[in-house]
Amino acid sequence: MQFDGIGPKYARNIMMDVYHPEFRECIAIDARIESISKALGLEFANYNVHEKFYLEVATVAGLEGWEVDRILFNYRDEVLRRFSVGQASPPALSQLAKSDRSIIGHNEDKRHDVMKISDRQRGTLIGLAVGDALGAAVEFMAPGSFEPVTDYRAGGPHGLEPGEWTDDTSMALALADSMGEVGWDLDDQARRYCDWWQEGKYSVNGHCFDIGITVQSALSRFSQNGDAHASGDTAERSSGNGSIMRLAPVPIRYANLLHKEVDELARLAIESSIPTHASPQCLSACRYFAVVLSGLINGHDRDAVLASDWPPIVEIQGPEPFHPAIAEVVSGSFRQKQPPEIQGSGYVVRSLEAALWAFHDAGDFEEAVLRAVNLGDDADTTGAVCGELAGACWGESGIKEKWRNELARMDMIEKALQSVLNQ
Ligand SMILES: [Mg+2]
Known about the structure:
This protein is an alpha+beta fold. The chain is built from 17 helices and four strands. Strand 2 and strand 3 form a beta hairpin.
């Protein structure tokens, strides 16, 4: 539902969240309804109390502040009254949201907490980078062959400093930059991946490193033909995890499509993979992963989102089922297996499965990403993929302060967040 005029002041920072707590059928104006109406400044006597009402609360949240409007509808979608709550700075909104919830009786439902959405959007990208940085030191190492990772450490195949991240984060930053600057344009996305590959842009240390064979071949093709729709390899053997590892900007920006335009969300996720990873497994993985991340960002319960019969997951398979190998993961393979069957492999199916295994029953962000990176092998990417999930679930505030403070080049990550959130 669109509301004209909501958020004009903050439109460029838009993350609109609309929810509609339901007024119980008003057979009579009882004490509860009276207190609600008083708190909201409504005069129910003016309305037909035999009707059901519902209240839409539209919140536009941005960097400069928040704007909150409420519209009272009857069930024929006729606007009975619209009243603006006005603008508020984030702390003020936090109080407002709290009182709202107690007024309308939605006290503990995370979905209705708009402050949390912003936290989870940020957590999705920061979580990716933290997981990447934690795994970087043990990349390519066999599970059990190294001292378990508990914190950032120096070393690894690229000789990084503690807290430095790799290609996973670099490609996500390039994607975010493209989305922020030009909207949705696959050729531009591919050009920015080339800027990273050839010039070290978006890299933590100014050099391109850790680039996979699949990505390099695709970007070589793009350099020659200039067509990102035809640069990614479509062969099943080219099913690396390189497009799920960088996916975060897509659900961060488009999580608001989840309930009303989930097919569009799925389409964008698929397209984001195509410049470098166009195999059926990779496309299915991105389609599934974007919807899961969007569900978590919107505050849906983890178990609900990961259930194979969660309605948005069912809906996106309407036009086309997932690739069978991805369908097996979606149906819950990650709940049944344990290492060594669970592998931190570079193959997209195993990588997605491993990240979900680490995440699905973890107690917090830390437990999830440490489980993921300690699988070794493609540890930074398993960490990044799991970090996206755990960051979307527990938010930036769920990532321990030490890891946020010691993450390298937070300025670059912050810039990407502003870019994708302010579009
Ligand atoms: Mg990497």
